[in-house]
Amino acid sequence: MIATEKLQTIVRDHGEVVDTSGNKIGKVGQLYLDDQTGDPEWVTVMTGLFGMSESFVPIRDATLEGDHVRVPYDKDMVKDAPRIDADAHLDERQEDELYNYYHLEGTTGDRTDMRSDMQERSDMRGKTDDAMTRSEEELRVGKERHATGHAHLRKYVVTENVQTTVPVSHEEVRVVREPITDENIDEALSGPDITESEHEVTLHAETPVVEKTTKPVERVRLEKDEVTEQEQVNETVRKEKIESDVDDTRRDRGM
Description:
Elements: H1 4-12, E1 16-18, E2 24-34, E3 40-47, E4 53-58, E5 63-65, E6 68-70, H2 75-79, H3 92-101, E7 111-113, H4 116-123, H5 185-188, H6 249-252
Parallel strand pairs: 1-6
Antiparallel strand pairs: 1-2, 2-3, 2-7, 3-4, 5-6
């Protein structure tokens, strides 16, 4: 069993309670002692949104690990424990309900909250004065972040046909006949008078030559933009109202 002094330090420092697998359940709220033995019997764990709920969990088999209290129960079991007002004194019926829920054998006798101010408020509930307290619920809305989807950026290869026009040239042979003139008479008489001969001319032509090169054309990346929008929350809250009713006894006497 964890010493009372160490548990008091955990309560003062708002230490955490973890379940049997080490999962965080919540922060320690209050410590309850056995009225007869003074030994630690229960702690409350602040659970729910903003830690507004407190769940009772037995401390007799708990262990202390640094500033964490490990209880031999899983997180869901502690959160689903019977709802009991953590600011009041535990009566025998409430303890029996908790013992049955955690499958434990309890002892008779009430338990008291070690926090004197809470006990004082519990004792004052049976007393009345001239004033009446009016209370009302206040709506507190928080936000939680969760994943809504995934965006992927993929690169793949496609094939497409590209057509373009390229000007190409080629050589064609053409027979040119020149009459004998004074300018070319010497070249015409330079050879033999009558003979056979052959003259060859090489023809050229251009053909398209295809060459492919790779070059970067753009950079693509994914960016996230945070968009804020207004979402309406509709919830019911309770409030107390106080009415006055005055009985005028003078009217009954004819005054």
